[in-house]
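So, could you explain the following?
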Amino acid sequence: METQTHSQFPVRLFLSGLFITLILVFFLSLTLGKYPLSLLEIRGVLSHILFGSSTDYSHSAETVFLQVRFPRLLACLCTGTALSVSGAVYQGIFKNPMVSPDLLGASATLATSASVAACGMVGWIGLVIPHLMRLITGPDYRYLIPASALGGGLFLILVDNITRIFFQVEISIGILTALVGAPCFLFLLVKGRGSWM
């Protein structure tokens, strides 16, 4: 029993670190984009909305935060989480590492419900992220599901940040996830062959 606890400790530590990283990246991502926002502006907007405080911030900061930045990041978080978890679950149910949320149409349904306009088609997430998390946490679904949820949300937010920061024109986040996803999936498939379940 002691050995099992020791082997679970690094996985729990990894999950805690992943959760903290996701929270930090989410809040940092609120500041990034074509119209940057400072943390003070975000705090001002939030305190005005939540508590009715009268703080100094521009009307454009409120518009960018409420109508663009926050909804977009929330959509990315929900989509990445849902696709990764459904991918991990489908791979376990069908006992096949090649199964993705596309198999039963969940990918389109999840992406649509979380706003395709904001995120684009991001099907690779449901295939790649569960594989990566399985290599780190092992096949125990008590750890794999939360790791896939956190990893999927984090990955899609990071990709969204890249599209907003490094490209002059807005490109579909699905294009970038496919460019990252295909080589990553091939690498993970070769590296993790035989150890996915």
User: Anything to note?
Assistant: Residues 1-6 have pLDDT under 50 and may be disordered. Residues 59-94 form the longest helix (36 residues). The radius of gyration is 18 Å.
